[in-house]
Design brief:
The chain is α+β, with helices and mostly antiparallel strands. Helices cover about 35% and strands about 25% of the residues. The protein starts with a strand and ends in a 6-residue tail after the last strand. It is built from nine helices and 13 strands.
C-alpha cells in the first residue's frame, strides 16, 4: 500500500434540547436535539505512511502548530477504543486540523473536531480494506460519541437526535439519528448568529459540569423535563410551530444554566452582557413579532436563532442593538447545514 491522505470536514452543532449529565462510557442521561451548523466547522487531513512494525504513531498539528494537549486527548481516545481501530497498526499518521472559526470565540469545538477526526479514521479503514462502499454514518456517530458526546450529532445535516426517545424507534443512547426527513422546511432555513460575549476559557469545563449532575438535587427532574421537551420539540419540528419552538428553546437554555447555579459547588457562566442580550431579544420579538429566539451553550455566548426570511431585520437589530454587548463587537453568522456528506 502506497502512502496516501484522507480529509474530512465536520461542523459544530447547537443543541435546542440540552444534553447535560452522563453515565457509563459517554452515555447521555437524557436525549438531546440539535441544529447542525454549516460555517463553523473543523477541517482535518491525515497523511498516512506505512511503517515496519506492528504499532502506529501519530503527530498532531493544530493550525500548523504542535498541540501536545490535543494530541494526548486523541491518543487516549485511540487507546481506550483500540478494539475499533486495529486497522491503524503499522501506520504513521500526521494529523493536521484547523477550525473555520476563531479558536477563542467560545464556540464549542470538540463536536466538530472529534467528528472530523472520526470521519478521517473511517476513510483510512476503508482504504486499508479496499472498501469502496459509502461511510456508515451511524458507525461514525457511535465512534464520535465515544470521543465527545455531542460529536455524535455533528455527523448528520440539518438536525439530529441523540438519546433513546419512545416516538423515534431507531433512537439510541449509543449514537445519534438524523431528523432531516422529519423537519418542517422552515427549520432548514434557520440562521444561528453567535454573539460572542466573552472569548475567555470557561471557569468550569463541560466535563466538570457534567460530573456535577451526579447527586444534583434537581437532576431527575431535569432529565424528566428534557425527555418531555424532546417529544414536544419533535412535534414542533414536524408542524412548524415557531412560537412553541421558541418557548422550548429558551426554557431549555435557561434551565441548563439553572442546573449550574444549583450544583454543589454552584457556579455561573452567564455574564451581565448575556442577560442584556436576552432581554433585548425578548423586547425585539415583542415589538416586531419576528420569531427570533435565543439559546445558550455551556458558556456566556448567545446563539440567536431565526428563519432565513427575517435575515435583514435581525441583521439590522444585531448591528444596532446587540454588538455593543459583544467582545470586540464579534458576531459569527452561521446557518443550518443542509448538504449531505
Amino acid at each position: 500500500m502506497n502512502d496516501f491522505s484522507v480529509s474530512s470536514a465536520s461542523p459544530s452543532n447547537i443543541a435546542i434540547v440540552k444534553y447535560w449529565g452522563k453515565h457509563g462510557n459517554q452515555l447521555p442521561n437524557n436525549p438531546s436535539i440539535s441544529f447542525t451548523l454549516s460555517r463553523c466547522h473543523t477541517e482535518t487531513q491525515i497523511h498516512i505512511k506505512q511503517n515496519a512494525n506492528e504499532n502506529y504513531s501519530m503527530r498532531f498539528l493544530f493550525e500548523g502548530k504542535e498541540s501536545p494537549k490535543f494530541q494526548e486527548k486523541i491518543e487516549k481516545y485511540l487507546i481506550d477504543n483500540q478494539q475499533y481501530f486495529s486497522f491503524l497498526k503499522g501506520l504513521d499518521l500526521e494529523v493536521e486540523s484547523r477550525n473555520t472559526f476563531p479558536h477563542s470565540s467560545g464556540i464549542a469545538s470538540s463536536a466538530a473536531s472529534m467528528s472530523a477526526l472520526v470521519l478521517c479514521l473511517l476513510k483510512i479503514e476503508k482504504a486499508v480494506n479496499h472498501d469502496v462502499t459509502p461511510l456508515d454514518m451511524r458507525k461514525a456517530s457511535f465512534l464520535s460519541r465515544l470521543a465527545s458526546g455531542s460529536a455524535a450529532r455533528s455527523v448528520f445535516p440539518v438536525m439530529a437526535l441523540w438519546g433513546v426517545t419512545p416516538s423515534v424507534p431507531d433512537s439510541s443512547d449509543e449514537y445519534a439519528v438524523p431528523l432531516a426527513d422529519m423537519v418542517h422546511p422552515v427549520f432548514k432555513t434557520y440562521h444561528d448568529s453567535i454573539l460572542i460575549v466573552s472569548n475567555k476559557e470557561k471557569s468550569v469545563s463541560s466535563r466538570v459540569g457534567h460530573s456535577l449532575m451526579n447527586g444534583h438535587p434537581l437532576a431527575e427532574q431535569r432529565y424528566a423535563t428534557a425527555r418531555q421537551n424532546t417529544e414536544r420539540l419533535l412535534k414542533v419540528l414536524k408542524n412548524g410551530d415557531l412560537t412553541e419552538f421558541m418557548t422550548i428553546a429558551e426554557a431549555e437554555a435557561l434551565q441548563l444554566h439553572e442546573m449550574m447555579a444549583t450544583s454543589n459547588p454552584p457556579y455561573k457562566l452567564m455574564e451581565p452582557n448575556t442577560m442584556k442580550i436576552i432581554e433585548s431579544v425578548r423586547a425585539f420579538r415583542h415589538e416586531t413579532n419576528i420569531p427570533a429566539c435565543f439559546t445558550l451553550d455551556a458558556g456566556p455566548n448567545v446563539h440567536l436563532l431565526y428563519p432565513e426570511a427575517y435575515e435583514k431585520q435581525v441583521g439590522d437589530f444585531i448591528n444596532e442593538s446587540l454588538l455593543q454587548y459583544c467582545h470586540d463587537n464579534q458576531c459569527i453568522d452561521d446557518i443550518v447545514q443542509n448538504m449531505k456528506r
